[in-house]
Structure formats: structure tokens, C-alpha cells
Amino acid sequence: MTHDDPESAPPAASKDDKSAEERRRADIRDRRLVRRLRQGDQRAFEELVRLYQHRIFGLMLRMIGNRQEAEDLAQEVFITLHRAIGQYRGEGRFYTWLYRIATNTCKNRIKYLRGRNFHRSVPVEETPEAHDPGDAGPVVPLQGQIAGPEAMTEGARLQAAIQRELNQLDPEHRLLIILRDVQGLSYQEILGITGLQEGTLKSRLHRARVALKERLAPHLK
Q1: Could you tell me which of 168, 173, 166, 167 has the C-alpha nearest to residue 204?
Q2: Which residues have a Cβ under 8 Å from the Cβ of 116 and sit 6 or more positions away?
Q3: Does the pLDDT of residue 2 top 70, yes or no?
Q4: Cβ atoms of 176 and 198 closer than 8 Å
Q5: Could you report the per-residue pLDDT of 5-63, keeping only the tens digit for each?
Q6: How far apart are the C-alpha atoms of 168 and 81, rounded to whole Å?
Q7: pLDDT in tens, 193-203
Q8: What is the mean pLDDT of the chain?
Q9: What CA–CA distance (Å, rounded) separates 143 from 162?
Q10: At how many degrees (to 10) do helices 187-194 and 94-115 cross?
Q11: What is the DSSP letter of 220?
Q12: Whether the Cβ atoms of residue 81 and residue 98 lie closer than 8 Å to each other
């Protein structure tokens, strides 16, 4: 019986390597679905909706703060996707292109709702993160730092406070926190979605985090 030399064995894949491989596979899958959709395959459209509806809805819900508005906006995003699929040339990731549609749709809606002085905070149990951990984690990992039998109640209160204070931020700052800290997108992905320069993105995100932390301070005493 022979034994492999441990030193000659290939190194285990790192977390970053695995993430890169997952992104590569997702990109290949998305491009195939886009190609089928362009050919009129409605099942491909349904599959794209299934793959991305929770994340798009989560973005809308966090940005708008109203469940019905978020559902309507998410539907509008996918209608736009269906109509505009011919405009996607494949230069970048489909995921980034879809998010660009979503953020533009959301910004336009926020401007409209501001004119009507409309807003409502989202109860924590209504956020997608509460039902699907795969979508996103909390804006700030506060709940995970609480231990003991009162953790669930206190954690829910903090989550609700986070959403209330998040709603008070400038929409541009709110968007960056949601994309980076809630949905876990990379800086490169956010640059592709927002069109910002890297230095501008990091500067604005820092200011957004500081503003949110200051607003949350009274809730952490």
C-alpha cells in the first residue's frame, strides 16, 4: 500500500477560491438563461425570477420600508428585465445589470414617494432576512452579540431599531449600507451597480456607517 506525500497534495481551496468558483458557475448559468430568454423561452425568465426575486425584494423592502411598495417594485424590476433583455450585451455580470435596474427603479420611486410624504418602517419579522438567511444578514451584527433567554426579544427590538434609523439616512447612503452590509456584495459589484469610483464608494460608505452608528447609539445603552 502506498501513501500520498502530504506535501505533494494540492492545497485545500480557500474560502475566496470557493466564492470565486461559485460566482463563475453562477455567471455561466445566468448567461445560458439570458440566451434562452432572448430566444423566447419563458421558462428561462421564470428561473431568473426564482433565482433573484428574494434579493431584489429584500433590497426594495429595506430601501422603501413598505412591504406592498416593495412587492410592486420588485415586480416592476422583473417586467423591465423581460422587456430590456435585448439591451444586456454581456459585457458585465448579469447580476450587476439586474441590480442596476433595481436601484434605478427604487430611486425613482423614492423621489415620487417623498413628494407624497410617504414612509413606513418595516417590522423586523417582515424583512426577507428573517425568513431566508441566504439572502442577507442584519445591517449590523447586533443580534448575534446578545446571549441568554432574552436574546430573541432584545435582538428583534434592535433589528427594528436598525431599520427605523436606516430609513432616516440619505437614500444614497442607505443603498450602500444595504448592498455592502446587508446583502454582502463586493466592492467591485457595487462599483458596477452604482458607477461610483472606488475612492468615492469607500468614502460614502464610511460616512453612511458612521451616521447609522450615531443614530443607533441611544438604542445600545
Answers
A1: 173
A2: none
A3: no
A4: no
A5: 544 445 555 555 667 888 899 999 999 999 999 999 999 999 999 999 999 999 999 99
A6: 30
A7: 999 999 999 99
A8: 81
A9: 11
A10: 60
A11: G
A12: yes
Per-position DSSP letters for 106-171, written without gaps between them = HHHHHHHHHHTT---PPPGGGSHHHH-TTT---SS--GGG--STTHHHHHHHHHHHHHHHHHTS-H
For residue 128 the three cell numbers come to 426577507
Backbone angles phi, psi at 2, to 5 degrees: -110, 150
CB-facing half-sphere around the CA of 180: CA atoms within 13 A? 19
Report residue 202 as a C-alpha cell. 469607500
User: What secondary structure does DSSP assign to 53-103, as a single string?
Assistant: HHHHHHHHHHHH--HHHHHHHHHHHHHHHHHHGGG--SSS-HHHHHHHHHH
Angle at alpha carbon of residue 128, lines to 186 and 195, rounded to 5°? 30
